Amino acid sequence: MSDGAFRVLADPATGRDPATDAARELIAGLALRPWGQVAASVYESARLVADAPWLPGHDERIGFLLRAQRPDGAWGPPEGYALVPTLSATDALLAALADGGGTRTHLLAPAARGLVVLSGRLLAADARTLPDTPALDLIVPALVESINDRLDRVTWEQLPTPPLTLPPGLGVDRLRAVRAAVAAGAALPTKLAHFYEVLGAMPTDAGPTLTAVGASPAATAAWLSAAGPDAGPSAHAFLRELIRDGRGPVPCPTPITVFERAWVLSGLRRAGVAVNPPAAVLDTLTAAATAATGVATGEGLPTDADTTSVALDALARLGRPADPAGLWAYETTDGFCTWPGSEDGFSVTTNAHVLDAFGQHVTAYPDADARYHRTVERLSAVLPAHQLADGPWQDRWHASPYYATACCVLALAEFGRGGAAAEAVDRAAGWVLANQRADGSWGRWGGTAEETAYALQVLLAAPTGAPRVTDAVARGHAYLHRPAGPEHPPLWYGKELYCPTAIVRSAVLAACRLAAVHVPGADRSVVDCGYQATKTST
């Protein structure tokens, strides 16, 4: 699909396009909050409770953890996604109990419930069934070790005392190897900086001008706790500002400057929403076109093919096309990897975004070198080859198949070549149609605005005008205009699942815009479409 496929929607009374007005507000927020807008994190906030009680907002973070605990004693999303946040929160409450000198006995019951659900269910799961969240094989052993050490040092009659054990199939070898390398002075890969709080490591670039260690408040706080707040005044100011914005709790990952701006601008322009971002916002994307291996999600993280590709796509849609040749540094025998060099697993969304970037280039320059065209043809075959039998895609950077399916369908519908690409789009649309919920929504665990937005984008990208599609789109669009619901659940992969709120809002806004074009008489008041359901304080 192309921007020209969508006519401008204007309010007959005012002549203004409500989607454009909403986009203007959203993009203004990108400039005002350059570190990004991410919902509060149980894992990260708990690490600050345990490792940096000297930071302001300590009691507020404890209160946040208590409010976030589920009735069953766990923290976080369903299934195995609860393991990491529950370990972190339980460890933090035990640390606060020990530090409180008997003044925090109200934490005993929630800590006990956390220990029970960990030993009884979460840690009993086979490691092969756990979600592939980043560094799970480092975080889980580190936190189990920490909890057992705390239980050994302090005896509380109300707490279960048997030591926690690791999930079957998960060992401590990698954690020990990394910690040994740190102790020996070895330089760690840049992406491991995101997990410094469990590695006992000091960042090699630590200094007074460093803002964030590994785009992680927890890693940053761990460094400052070890080195002293005066060692990193910029990092200390960064944490204080995050704490002030969130009134105690902190988000993760942060900063996500380029990631947020690329996804918001690319998604809105793809849906035909007129945007005019300020130069300061656009300039952060240009490294994708000028640096040898592209651009990173945010300060403290390594460059990656995913962020680079979406930044290139956004630039092209904003009239600044750039050569994607730098992405060949990520090419492998299977397709394109996310990080430079090898990685575990294959990301279909990264490869879909690489197809977007090369597709933009060969569309703008049909006479481009044959290698560019071969890359488009190759990815047009690679993505369908990873499609699941019933029509969706699943990815390692998002818990919902609707996100992965939307990424693949949008890329294949716009730039895919050959019959396999077209067939894959049709099969995906059929899967989406078959899985709409009774209230018009879509979702993995329940209907959400974010996943409904992705489902609508899939249906509206498929080349069909069947009445069934129109009805499904109308029902989904109506769902997005329902009265405000609860905060949007976290679905994006990090140390735990997280919610990048500005990106989610832009996806919902884009879907509202597309659906309003498709459905005759649809509500076009998209300014707040889905916003209340995705708005989360940071």
Characterise this structure:
The two termini are 34 Å apart. It contains 21 helices and no strands. Helix 19 packs across helix 20 (501-518). It is globular. The chain is mainly alpha-helical and 538 residues long. The protein has helices at 18-32, 42-51, 58-68, 83-99, 108-120, 136-153, 173-183, 217-227, 233-246, 257-270, 279-283, 287-290, 305-317, 348-364, 370-385, 401-415, 419-434, 449-461, 467-480, 501-518, 531-534. The protein is 50% helix and 0% strand.
Task: Explain the layout of strands and helices.
Blueprint: H1 18-32, H2 42-51, H3 58-68, H4 83-99, H5 108-120, H6 136-153, H7 173-183, H8 217-227, H9 233-246, H10 257-270, H11 279-283, H12 287-290, H13 305-317, H14 348-364, H15 370-385, H16 401-415, H17 419-434, H18 449-461, H19 467-480, H20 501-518, H21 531-534
Helix pairs in contact: 1-20, 2-3, 2-4, 2-8, 4-5, 4-6, 8-9, 10-13, 10-20, 13-14, 14-15, 14-16, 15-17, 16-17, 16-18, 17-18, 18-19, 18-20, 19-20
- As a percent range, the share of strand residues is under 5%
Count of separate DSSP helical elements: 21
Structural class: mainly alpha
Determine the fraction of residues in helical runs and give it as a percent range. 40-55%
Which radius of gyration do the C-alpha atoms yield? 23 Å
The largest sheet is: none
* Low-pLDDT sequence parts: 1-12, 530-538
Rounded mean pLDDT is 89
Tally of strands: 0
Q: What is the H/E order?
A: HHHHHHHHHHHHHHHHHHHHH
Span between termini: 34 Å
Shape: globular
List keywords for this structure.
disordered N terminus; 0% strand; 538 residues; globular; disordered C terminus; 21 helices; mainly alpha
